[in-house]
Design brief:
heterodimer, A: mainly alpha, 2 strands, globular, B: Rossmann fold, four-stranded parallel β-sheet, three-stranded parallel β-sheet, 14 strands, 40% helix, 17% strand
Chain lengths: 311, 427
């Protein structure tokens, strides 16, 4: 998600590979690849917030929940076209993200982290409270379910569209303003950048991305939305994805999404510790390792490689 | 630019390898998936880690039973291989895990998977692909109610899905009867988990009480994540209502807190505890937290290693567990854990069905066998309480419909003592 358009060549390669994959992979691998696409959308959104505006969120799983429930409920009650429900998830989460951005204006650092953490904890409780509409712990089942290939296509199409949107938004004035806010709020204000406008906007747009990711996430569970799917762990996974991705690179986000999307599955096949009980151990160890070796995430790695190439 | 070209080259290499590997994995298998001449591969998802990991005994017991069967020649010459995946009781993870079992491990059937929500998150996929999802470890009524009619708006009948244990509302109706027998004018207070699980129980209790429903004078919902203090506060409120009968529809952690609070505030009503939480291991934990326990009433449907060690089923259980010495399963079991006996019972039913599914079982023939179970008398399941049957038919979709009452005696070192006859709970 560089403010430069990534080299056209690499974009074409990514697109070509992605469209060829479903023809070469087994159905299970297509499902895994779709999972990566879903996290790509979520990590991309969170990257705008943390990477560009310098705000933190441990609560984006909550927006995924809202997006996911939007899809499941609209499909259950109105048989709404699933693609349309994703657009709705985007709009609803954008609005809610803006609202969350308001208190976030007054908070930063650990206080903002706590506020968003509270969101991650409390939103999944709402379906239990309003169980007639939101299905309680029994969950909400959509009226239509989709195949893995459909999901794959949807996830990566969304990824492409939202990636293009992020690039359009971030390349010019807005991106510059956001980065100015991140680097020094005082300097940004002095230069005429409206803090409230840009900070809330960053929250809104990243929440909207999480909403779409949530909508896809629910389709990946056979259209079944249930509170425990959206635990705090999910928010943490997004944050880990964003940290692994680093800032400002398509490859970085791709690597971050693949990391959180695939590692929990892959880690069970790590010998000895990866046995049935060791999934989280491997995941945690890998996160520590990546952060030690690549403090700037994969984006930092690619930057370093590029610098090496020039030298 | 040079780096870029290298990068693209590397990427292409990786993708070529991935595609090749995937291609091999996708190579088609002949015959019934998971069934070879020498082996039958099945799988299931369970919480081995995370908040519900107390249930990890169940898959371990199932694997122990299959190991025992394999050591005695297997079923029709085939050994049973059971692949267990940890889904952490998180329905967001279960679908990928189940897809892995089906499409990577090519399992014959999903057997015994635990949890209502994980089950609901995968039954659409499994039924669509006509893959048995059987003997689920959850007592909700979905698994029996949706065999012949559609239960959600996807319009797919869930005829490839079935449960095993008695369902929750039926259990609650028995408690209602018991309460009225003890005291027709009982004033009842209910603590229940604020979700489908707790509410289904409460609904069953109301149905059972019928015209006496108004005798429920106080109810308090709690949420799964509530701390012991919060649960304790709920119990305090219920005690103030003046009720003389206290019904607990909870999961183990909350039940332990509720029982301990009762003793701490010197409230001694007739206490009824649902069987999910009545595992002896949990009761002893409650005793450690100060609960006096004597006189608590619950129900059961499997035998007890500690209360009935001389039953032939429990002797067999001991043999099976002893045989796990020096294997990876060795540390999984503790004496008197109902979940151990439960797991053995489920595995026994699966093997029973497999024996009746023909020499060369198919997924359809397995379902047929499971829909016509007749585990009673000579073919009784040795781990299920004596006199109870595990039965299914065209019209009967809930395998177990019987329970027996039990009462706790002996305090902190005590145990459950069954009383009365085996009762039909229905569903």
């Amino acid at each position: 998600m560089s403010t430069r358009l990534p080299a056209l060549g690499s974009l074409v390669v990514v697109a070509a590979v992605l469209s060829a994959l479903p023809f070469t992979l087994s159905d299970y691998h297509v499902a895994l690849a779709a999972q990566v696409g879903i996290f790509f959308v979520g990590v991309l959104g969170l990257n705008i917030l943390t990477g560009y505006s310098g705000q933190i969120s441990i609560g984006h799983g909550a927006f995924m929940a809202i997006g996911g429930y939007t899809t499941a409920i609209m499909s259950r009650d109105h048989h709404t076209n699933l693609v349309l429900t994703m657009v709705m998830a985007f709009a609803i989460c954008f609005a809610l993200g803006l609202i969350l951005g308001l208190p976030a204006l007054r908070l930063s650092g650990v206080y903002l982290a706590l506020l968003t953490f509270a969101l991650a904890v409390s939103v999944p409780q709402l379906p239990l409270q309003y169980s007639t509409f939101l299905g309680g712990s029994g969950g909400v089942q959509s009226s239509t379910t989709v195949s893995n290939v459909w999901l794959y296509a949807a996830a990566w199409t969304c990824s492409a569209i939202l990636f293009a949107l992020a690039w359009l938004v971030l390349r010019g004035r807005t991106g510059r303003a956001l980065r100015a806010v991140r680097d020094s709020e005082i300097a940004a204000t002095a230069s005429g950048v409206s803090l409230p406008l840009y900070k809330t906007f960053a929250f809104g747009i990243s929440a909207a991305y999480a909403g779409v990711a949530g909508s896809l996430f629910v389709l990946a569970t056979n259209g079944f939305a249930q509170p425990t799917e959206f635990s705090v762990t999910l928010s943490l996974q997004l944050l880990i994805g964003a940290a692994v991705a680093g800032l400002g690179s398509l490859w970085g986000v791709l690597a971050g999404a693949a990391f959180v999307g695939l590692l929990p599955q892959v880690s069970t096949s790590v010998p000895v510790i990866g046995s049935a009980h060791g999934r989280d151990v491997v995941f945690g160890a890998m996160v520590v390792l990546v952060m030690l070796v690549l403090p700037g995430g994969f984006a930092g790695l690619f930057d370093r490689l590029r610098a090496l190439g020039r030298a | 630019m040079a780096v870029n070209r290298k990068k693209v080259g590397a990427l292409l290499c990786v993708l070529a390898v991935t595609a090749a590997v995937a291609g091999t994995a996708a190579a088609s298998h002949k015959g019934t998936p998971g069934v070879t001449k020498a082996q039958i591969t099945i799988g299931g998802t369970f919480p081995l880690t995370g908040p519900a990991s107390l249930y990890a005994t169940i898959p371990a017991a199932e694997q122990a039973y299959y190991a025992y069967v394999n050591a005695h020649g297997g079923v029709n010459g085939r050994k049973i291989k059971d692949i267990v995946i940890d889904d952490q009781y998180d329905p967001g993870q279960t679908p990928t895990d189940v897809q892995k079992l089906v499409e990577q491990d090519h399992v014959f059937a999903i057997v015994g998977s635990l949890g209502t929500a994980p089950g609901l998150a995968t039954w659409g996929y499994l039924n669509q692909h006509k893959i048995p999802q059987v003997l689920l470890a959850t007592g909700d009524a979905y698994w029996g109610n949706c065999v012949h009619r559609t239960c959600d708006k996807t319009n797919i009948k869930k005829s490839w899905t079935m449960g095993w244990q008695p369902d929750y509302p039926g259990e609650a109706r028995l408690y209602a009867k018991y309460i009225l027998q003890q005291n027709p004018n009982a004033k009842i207070a209910v603590l229940y988990q604020d979700d489908a699980y707790g509410k289904n129980y409460l609904a069953g209790l109301r149905t059972g009480l019928g015209s006496h429903t108004s005798q429920i004078i106080a109810t308090q919902p709690y949420t799964v994540t509530d701390t012991a203090q919060v649960v304790g506060a709920h119990v305090g409120k219920l005690a103030q209502s003046g009720a003389d009968t206290f019904v607990i529809f909870a999961t183990p952690a909350a039940a332990i807190a509720a029982l301990a609070t009762e003793t701490a505030i010197h409230w001694s009503p007739l206490t009824i505890l649902n069987n999910v939480s009545a595992n002896r291991v949990f009761m002893l934990l409650a005793a450690k937290n100060g609960a006096s326990l004597n006189g608590v009433v619950s129900t059961g449907y499997v035998e007890s290693q500690t209360a009935q060690p001389n039953l032939s089923g429990m002797k067999l259980a001991k043999k099976i567990i002893d045989a796990t010495k020096n294997t990876s399963l060795e540390t999984s079991f503790s004496e008197g854990d109902n979940n151990l006996v439960y797991g053995l019972g489920v595995a026994w039913t699966f093997v029973d069905a497999l024996k009746h599914a023909g020499k060369n079982p198919t997924r359809a023939s397995l379902m047929k066998a499971l829909r016509s179970l007749n585990e009673s008398k000579k073919n009784a399941n040795p781990f299920v309480y004596p006199g109870m049957s595990v039965e299914t038919s065209k019209t009967r979709t809930f395998p177990m419909e019987q329970l027996i009452f039990e009462k706790w005696a002996g305090g902190a070192t005590g145990d459950w003592k069954t009383f009365g006859n085996v009762l039909t709970s229905g569903h």
